[in-house]
């Protein structure tokens, strides 16, 4: 649960779909605009010249009255292979729930550090949830 009320739901939806949630979670995002099916983005994390790059493509948009977000699939060069979904829901009781779901495995060269990648994925999921609302 990240908040309550339609205003917070709208804020979180906007932050997810404009990639602001990613930016506030510490991800550098290069893309041509808001999340939409077929749009690609270059994502990177790190400090200075020590960046871990990854490319992804938006494969689905959720745009219901009480639920919003998107899912992307990783592209060649990403340290993982899979999909990740970022959703916000306005529950019947007025509470706002944020969620992040990942289905992935390490890319071949990253497989040696798979336990590190799994831990990093858990850390990033918490950062994404925290960044859904300012």
The figure for the number of domains is: 1
Secondary-structure element pattern, one letter each: EHHEEEEEEH
* Shape-level CATH architecture: 2-Layer Sandwich
How are the strands of the biggest sheet laid out side by side? Answer: 1-7-6-5-4-3-2
Percentage of helical residues?
A: 25-40%
Shape: globular
Kindly report the name of the CATH homologous superfamily.
START domain
Write down how many β-strands occur, each being a DSSP E stretch of 2 or more residues.
7
Distance between the termini: 14 Å
**Cα-atom Rg, whole angstroms?**
15 Å
Structural class: alpha+beta
Largest sheet: 7 strands, antiparallel
- Which fold name corresponds to the CATH topology? Alpha-D-Glucose-1,6-Bisphosphate, Chain A, domain 4
Runs in which pLDDT lies below 50 for 5 or more consecutive residues are: none
Number of DSSP helical runs: 3
- Average pLDDT confidence is 91
What is the strand content?
A: 35-45%
Q: Which CATH top level class fits? A: Alpha Beta
Features:
single chain, 25% helix, globular, 134 residues, alpha+beta, 7 strands, Alpha-D-Glucose-1,6-Bisphosphate, Chain A, domain 4, seven-stranded antiparallel β-sheet
Report on this model:
- Helices cover 25% and strands 44% of the residues.
- By secondary structure, the chain is an alpha+beta fold.
- The mean pLDDT is 91.
